[in-house]
Write a structure and sequence with these properties.
The complex is a heterodimer of chains A (429) and B (389). Chain A contains five helices and 24 strands. Chain A is mainly β and 429 residues long. Chain A has two domains: 174 residues, Jelly Rolls, CATH 2.60.120; 183 residues, Jelly Rolls, CATH 2.60.120. In chain A, strands 3, 4, 7, 8, 9, 10, 11, 12, 13, 14 and 15 form an eleven-stranded antiparallel β-sheet that branches. In chain A, strands 1, 16, 18, 21, 23 and 24 form a six-stranded antiparallel β-sheet that branches. In chain A, strands 2-17-22-19-20 form a five-stranded antiparallel β-sheet, with no helix packed on it. The radius of gyration of chain A is 32 Å and the shape is elongated. With 389 residues, chain B is mainly β. Chain B has one domain: Porin, CATH 2.40.160.60. The chains are: A mainly beta (429), B mainly beta (389). The interface between A and B is large, with 55 and 84 residues.
Chain lengths: 429, 389
């Protein structure tokens, strides 16, 4: 018995050994570094590539017509005049009386155009009016909106609504009663279209956003009655466009869009511009060496631009500008097209700046994600070293930013500051 | 046969129960406190010594005559049966540097050996850790990115070891002399991960690098055991380094020499139920210097050990062994150019099991490492398991 008891502590040795073996290691030792961690370093090198930008150019006409979200309805004396166009190319021309078959519409009554206004951060005038004009003329070229300007004529006025600022909230539903006779003439003519041009008037500056047809709710609607019988519900027509017929599906872009009758021109010589109406983007092409792209780990790449102040309406209201990676391949040599084929989902570049147009000074954009995307993939570079600067409210505001370009004074030109870790063999003691 | 019988049959007597209990108590205490440190992991890592648990308990004093320690190929002839030895050795460290204190815990399996004998020949295959390089560190600092200082975190870790795979053969010439030779394959790897990260709010990408340093080399060793009298065993061995290279992924970092080693030891059995042992060993670690960079300082190291083992109480009719030892050595890799010294006091117990068909050796080592204002104290708990089918 005594011998067995003496064996007990001995037998405990085995479970103790297994217990310790089951312990997880605790290797973390931070407080002794860097004293006890020689060689465990990851050096970063901060380099200024001047010029890191190979060329830059201003590209105008963004977004494409009809892709403005939201639409802009604005007027400011003789410096700003933007008018949304909403097309109703497929009007309801038949109705179903109660307990009867479908029949053509011969009368039209209680015609209203409904749309939603959104405030956009600008001051709301005390009183303002919104006019709706009949700008339907299918003989005009769709891609030249300015040809519609002569159609904003009093003789083509469909209706007007006067609005007191008291009733205006962040979002306000507006109903304009349209001229019944003009609409009836269009409904009864199977070839006619109804295209409404909105224009805002006020003694003060006025600017609103209009919820476009692509919105799930509160998109513009045309409503009219086809019979005096109140048991027959009013007809509701959603915006649509038949033209242009080619290229295919482009007609949907023309369902509603902005007609920029007048807007400040932000361009100034060779300077880079972002924003304005029609929207402007600036395209930057870089010339980073292969050794940097393929043999180092870049932790930061900041595009440094010097902002040139833009004086004008609403120049104190901050706006957001974002760099976007150009994902158009090297085969896309049309820069206008390349500037549209960009990373819209912010997968590669997430940085942005928010500054007022009248400000000036150094602005930095972190484009590290783009630099990493420019690496060789299986020995080939799939995309050019290019980004574009995009205005966050492109097509929906008239303001924008201006930067000195490669044509500017040497000290004010675009530069690229890169911080990278050389691909040294780490871990060698 | 005299030498073999002296190893396997010699009776022992001493108190073992208290030693085992102390070992267990310290083991539990160390687990709870979770000590740690990194003076030992400079350069390519910590030399575990290639000792068995029994030799570790004796401060390495009997390593030249210990068949379970992978040093002297001549010593394997002291085992006259097929045997398996395995060692499990966790280490609990506490490092003090610049007013800071850090605790770390490393789990190691530093040795495994198979031996067998046919006639006058014995052979052994062993796998032991030559240099263990396992650490994790995180350093919070400030980096200049795009001209602006930003907070950053540097993470660094290594897992793995430089290992020594040895095949040894010994031959028994006379009752007093046996010799052995061995070939060594130096292999293993360090799995390195280094990263630098920044807070999300800085919008700065991090960078990390994972790589593997592989070692490849060969060496040869020879050794002899000589017993001029029944009361004395002498052992000596030497390892001659071939080349060893280190490659990081496919890039050659450097080519050096497997460290040459010369060792000699003696065990005296003149006192009844007591064995006194001593050993001196010199390892030329500077052969590894070309594998490191400018920051690595390498030193040749001298290892001196003294130990005594006595017969413990009989358990189940089997004699147990109690051991005490002291060891003084320098480590191969210095800190900022200064050599690191290690002094160890150790104790342990050996218990044969199953009519000497198995053996458990326990050792507890208290190591103190110092250099230039930094000191590190460590508990090493060694569990050695031997089976002789």
């Amino acid at each position: 018995m005594i011998r067995r008891l003496l064996r007990a502590p001995l037998l405990l040795a085995l479970p103790v050994a297994f217990a310790i073996g089951a312990c997880s290691e605790k290797l973390e030792n931070s407080v002794s570094c860097p004293l006890l961690c020689p060689g465990q370093e990851l050096e970063l090198i901060d380099t200024l590539f001047d010029p890191g930008v190979m060329f830059d150019t201003v590209l105008r006409g963004f977004p494409l017509i009809g892709q403005e979200t939201p639409l802009l309805l604005a007027a400011r004396g003789d410096s700003l005049d933007v008018r949304p166009i909403i097309r109703f190319d497929s009007l309801a021309r038949r109705f179903a009386p109660v307990n009867d078959t479908l029949r053509p519409i011969t009368m039209v009554d209680s015609v209203t155009l409904t749309f939603m206004l959104q405030t956009n951060g600008l001051k709301i005038p005390r009183n303002f009016s919104i006019d709706a004009y009949d700008v339907g003329d299918t003989s005009l070229v769709d891609s030249l909106p300015l040809t519609l300007l002569p159609l904003f004529d009093p003789a083509r006025l469909l209706g007007t609504v006067d609005i007191d600022s008291v009733v205006v909230r962040d979002t306000t539903t507006v109903r304009i009663r349209l001229d019944t006779a003009r609409v009836r003439a269009l409904v009864t003519d199977s070839t006619a279209v109804l295209r409404v041009g909105l224009r805002v008037r006020s003694t003060e500056s006025v600017s609103f956003w209009v919820v476009p047809s692509t919105a799930a709710n509160n998109a513009p609607r045309l409503r009219y009655r086809a019979a005096t019988d109140t048991l027959i519900p009013a007809l509701t027509v959603a915006p649509n466009s038949r033209t242009p017929r080619t290229p295919l599906n482009v007609n949907t872009d023309f369902i509603d869009y902005n007609l920029v009758a007048d807007a400040p021109d932000l361009r100034d010589g060779d300077k880079a511009v972002v924003g304005g109406l029609p929207g402007i983007r600036t395209y930057y092409r870089f010339a980073l060496p292969d050794w940097l792209l393929d043999s180092t780990a870049v932790v930061s790449a900041k595009l440094e631009l010097v902002q040139d102040p833009v004086r004008g309406p609403d120049d104190s209201i901050p706006i957001v500008v974002k760099p976007r990676l150009v994902i158009a391949g090297n085969v896309t040599t049309d820069l206008q097209r390349a500037a549209r084929l960009i990373d819209l989902q912010n997968v590669f570049i997430r940085d942005s700046i928010r500054v007022a147009p009248r400000d000036s000074g150094l602005r930095r954009f972190e484009i590290n994600g783009a630099v990493n995307a420019w690496r060789n993939i299986e020995g080939r570079r799939s995309i050019p070293q290019a980004i574009v600067l995009v205005f966050n409210d492109e097509g929906a505001r008239h303001t924008g930013l201006r930067f000195f370009s490669l044509e500017g004074p040497a000290a004010l030109r675009p530069r690229l500051r890169v911080t990278y870790a050389p691909n040294i063999r780490l871990g060698r003691p | 046969m005299m030498l073999r019988s002296m190893y396997s049959l010699r009776p022992w007597r001493a108190a073992v129960t208290s030693t085992v209990a102390a070992t267990i108590a310290v083991t539990f205490a160390a687990t709870a406190s979770a000590a740690q440190g990194s003076l030992a992991t400079q350069g390519y890592g910590y030399p575990t010594g290639q000792l068995s648990a029994a030799a570790a308990a004796l401060g390495g004093a009997n390593a030249e005559t210990d068949p379970a320690s992978a040093l002297n190929p001549g010593a394997i002839g002291l085992v006259n049966r097929y045997s398996i030895f395995a060692l499990f050795e966790p280490e609990f460290r506490r490092t003090r540097a610049a007013g800071n204190e850090a605790n770390t815990r490393t789990i190691r399996f530093p040795a495994f050996m198979l031996t067998g004998a046919v006639g006058r020949f014995s052979a052994a295959a062993s796998f032991t850790t030559l240099l263990d390089r396992t650490y994790v560190s995180t350093l919070v600092d400030t980096q200049v990115v795009a001209g602006d200082p930003v907070p950053s975190s540097l993470g660094s870790s290594s897992n793995g070891a430089m290992s020594d795979a040895r095949f040894a053969v010994s031959y028994w010439f006379t009752r007093k002399v046996q010799v052995g030779v061995a070939v060594h394959a130096i292999s293993g790897e360090n799995r390195i991960f280094v990263s630098r990260s920044f807070p999300d709010s800085t919008n700065i990408g991090g960078v990390s690098q994972a790589s593997t340093i592989n070692f490849s080399g060969r060496a040869y060793s020879m050794g002899a055991i000589y017993s001029p009298s029944p009361k004395l065993i002498l052992g000596a061995s030497a390892r001659f380094g071939g080349t060893v290279d280190a490659k990081q992924d496919i890039v050659l970092l450097g080519e050096g020499k497997v460290p040459r080693r010369f060792g000699a030891g003696a065990s005296y059995y003149g006192i009844p139920n007591t064995t006194l042992s001593a050993r001196i060993d010199r390892t030329e670690w500077s052969g590894l210097d070309p594998l490191g960079g400018a920051n690595m300082s390498t030193f040749d190291a001298t290892d001196i050990g003294l130990g005594v083992d006595v017969l413990g109480p009989r358990l189940g009719g089997v004699a147990t062994i109690a051991r005490l030892g002291a060891r003084d050595r320098s480590l191969p890799f210095g800190l900022n150019g200064a050599q690191v010294n290690e002094r160890t006091f150790s104790g342990g117990v050996g218990v044969p099991l199953g009519r000497s068909r198995g053996q458990i050796d326990l050792a507890l080592q208290r190591a103190v490492r110092t250099t230039g204002g930094v000191n590190e104290r460590a508990w090493l708990v060694s569990f050695g398991f031997g089976i002789r089918p």
